[in-house]
Amino acid sequence: MNIFLADAEATICLGVILGELLTAGSVILLEADLGAGKTTLVQGIGKGLGITESIVSPTFTLINEYTEGRLPLYHLDLYRLEANEVAALNLETYWEGVEVMPGIVAIEWPQRLPYKPDSYLSVRLSYGDNNTRIAEITPFNCVISGDFAARCISYF
Ligand SMILES: Nc1ncnc2c1ncn2[C@@H]1O[C@H](COP(=O)(O)OP(=O)(O)O)[C@@H](O)[C@H]1O
Ligand SMILES: [Mg+2]
């Protein structure tokens, strides 16, 4: 499913829809170039989950955890890591939700993952004309609530 995002507010809104609908254990892999809007989308997801704390890029902290919303949000940015360093982090802990409370895991630069989760939502953000963006959303081995398409159609 492709969604046209005219401005940053539209990117936030797509995130809000996801944040309201996704279930615990959902993993979102955000594949996009620098500046394409990955962190902006996660800010929307946080808003949709009811997180009021400001969501900032985890480029230096690697993982930011927000626990005040409907579900915990785990926001990762793997940009600065090599695949072997990522492997050592045992990130599956986050999506298996065994040692941490199951929540939504949003990963920037998932290209660095040595292996992918069994199921995830792929969100590719690319540049359109006039500084717009296009989001290409593909569920792998998972389903998004039927409300998702309906809400996107009514908003975008
Ligand atoms: N749909 C959009 N149209 C125009 N600008 C956008 C859109 N979505 C996000 N932006 C802007 O792009 C810039 C970079 O966004 P950011 O989320 O930090 O990107 P990334 O995390 O992918 O590097 C921000 O200034 C943000 O407001
Ligand atoms: Mg970012």
Mean pLDDT: 95
In spatial order, strands of the major sheet run 1-7-6-2-5-4-3
- In this structure, how is the largest beta sheet organized? 7 strands, mixed
Helix content: 25-40%
**Shape assignment:** globular
Radius of gyration: 14 Å
Q: Stretches where pLDDT falls below 50 for ≥5 residues?
A: none
By CATH's scheme, which homologous superfamily applies?
Answer: P-loop containing nucleotide triphosphate hydrolases
CATH top level class name? Alpha Beta
Named at the architecture level, the CATH assignment is: 3-Layer(aba) Sandwich
CATH topology: Rossmann fold
Question: How many separate domains?
Answer: 1
Tell me what you see in this structure:
It is a single chain. The protein has a 7-stranded mixed β-sheet, with helices on one face. The longest helix is centred in the N-terminal third of the chain and has 14 residues, at 8-21. The model has no long low-confidence stretch (mean pLDDT 95). Helix 1 (8-21) runs antiparallel to helix 5. The protein contains 5 helices and 7 strands, in the order E-H-E-H-E-E-H-H-E-E-E-H. It has helices at 8-21, 38-49, 83-88, 92-96, 147-155, and strands spanning 2-5, 27-32, 63-66, 73-77, 104-108, 120-127, 133-140. Strand 3 and strand 4 form a beta hairpin. The protein has a single domain, classed as P-loop containing nucleotide triphosphate hydrolases (Rossmann fold, 3-Layer(aba) Sandwich), CATH 3.40.50. The structure holds adenosine-5'-diphosphate and magnesium ion. Adenosine-5'-diphosphate binds at residues 5, 7-8, 10-11, 32, 34-40, 108, 131-133.
